Amino acid sequence: MIYDCEDGMTGFLRNVWHMVAWCDEIGQDLMSRRVCGQSLLIFRRVDGSAVVMDDRCPHRFAPLSLGNRDGDRVACGYHGLVFDAEGHCVGNPFSPKIPSGAAVRTYPVIEQDSIVWVWMGSAADADQSLIADLPFLRDLPEERLLRGYTRMRANYEYGTDNLMDLSHIEFVHKGSFAGAGVIFAGSHEVIEEGATLHSNWWMPDVAAPGHTTGIYPPNMRTDHWLDMRWNAPATMQLTVGATPLGGPRADGVVVEQAHVLTAETQDTTHYFWATSATFPLADDEATAGFKALFAKAFDEEDKPMIEAAYANLEGADFWDARPVFLGIDAGGTRARRILQKMRRLELQSTPAMSHDAGFGECPPGVGVSPHC
Ligand code: FES
Ligand SMILES: [Fe+2]
């Protein structure tokens, strides 16, 4: 089931762009990745364009990713039905006749900002302008970018809570980003701007933060900011900035980060992240240290805490568990409310939307399967 709750309190959003991979993760090999509970087959056509389709053969449901490629065609590894990149069955080893219903659903896919985005809902609504922009990923040269991935055993909204409430750096990131009290010297605001949320920290007159190392002297007084922008379902851009005390932001040292969370299942999340660097990355000690810092922060600090908190709920609903609010957590709370509203609207417009309904018999207006 795609929606496990009829009031939209929980479940997946389908009429949004989901990040399924970094562009350089996909190639000629057949790759499988689960998004919103569905196994997807991902590969590049011979001409290099990306294909995303259900990783499930309509005969006995074998993953097509266990099959073989012949040009742009994929032969199922179980009994040999052949499908083209548009999901049509084009070969049956047992008959010249193509069996009825032998088709695989394909999905709209766009590559933008080094990211492969997939639209899991109605193809007619797949509007590229709805992709949240991450311009630094296309504007900066590769040697100024570090990209990563980690898988979390927690629902993606708990990852959003973490990112929209950066007060946790004072506690969780003592061994990496180490806030050293700057959060307590700052002020926080959450701004809602159409479909975009901002969760911003402003910390005036603090010691030069870590990202300015090598540029500002460590004890220099600075104004420091952490601006997080959110768009549904969970595309976030963090701007980490510092400027000499009282100086204009435009003169500051700025690092941009992307944090994109994709629901793998209700209980697991693909966490894609990227950061810019203030120096060219190379095969050297400084780059190794930089990579180790981020791996430690996301893999060894954020991930265990988010997973442990999620496991502690033992499947209970977030709101039913009656979370205490501190104010600084307003960003994640607002994001949850927006997602809830979007799910309700989606349910109203496509009440029968589910994987079971969408696979054999697509509900009206849903999907780009050739049989719909
Ligand atoms: S499961 Fe694919 S051809 Fe039988
Ligand atoms: Fe964190």
Query: SSE order, as H and E?
Result: EEEEEEEEEEHEHEEEEEEHHH
CATH class of the largest domain: Alpha Beta
Task: From the 3D structure, determine the CATH topology of the largest domain.
Answer: Naphthalene 1,2-dioxygenase Alpha Subunit, Chain A, domain 1
Question: How much of the residues is beta strand, in percent?
Answer: 25-35%
Order of adjacent strands in the largest pleated sheet: 11-17-16-15-14-13-12
How far apart the termini lie comes to 19 Å
- Ligands bound to this protein structure: FE2/S2 (inorganic) cluster, fe (ii) ion
- Architecture of the largest domain, CATH level 2? Alpha-Beta Complex
User: What's the main sheet like?
Assistant: 7 strands, antiparallel
Range of helix content: 10-25%
Shape: globular
Query: Helices and strands: which structural class?
Result: alpha+beta
State the domain count. Answer: 2
The number of strands is: 17
Figure out the total of helices. Answer: 5
CATH superfamily of the largest domain: Naphthalene 1,2-dioxygenase Alpha Subunit, Chain A, domain 1
Averaged pLDDT: 91
Radius of gyration: 22 Å
- Poorly predicted sequence stretches spanning 5 or more consecutive residues: 1-6, 353-372
Structure description:
The chain has 5 helices and 17 strands. The protein is α+β, with helices and mostly antiparallel strands and 372 residues long. It folds into 2 domains: 24-122, Rieske [2Fe-2S] iron-sulphur domain (Rieske Iron-sulfur Protein); 134-342, Alpha-Beta Complex (Naphthalene 1,2-dioxygenase Alpha Subunit, Chain A, domain 1). The strands form 4 sheets. A 7-stranded antiparallel sheet has the order 11-17-16-15-14-13-12, with helices on one face. Helix 2 (156-164) runs antiparallel to helix 4. Bound molecules: FE2/S2 (inorganic) cluster and fe (ii) ion (FE2).
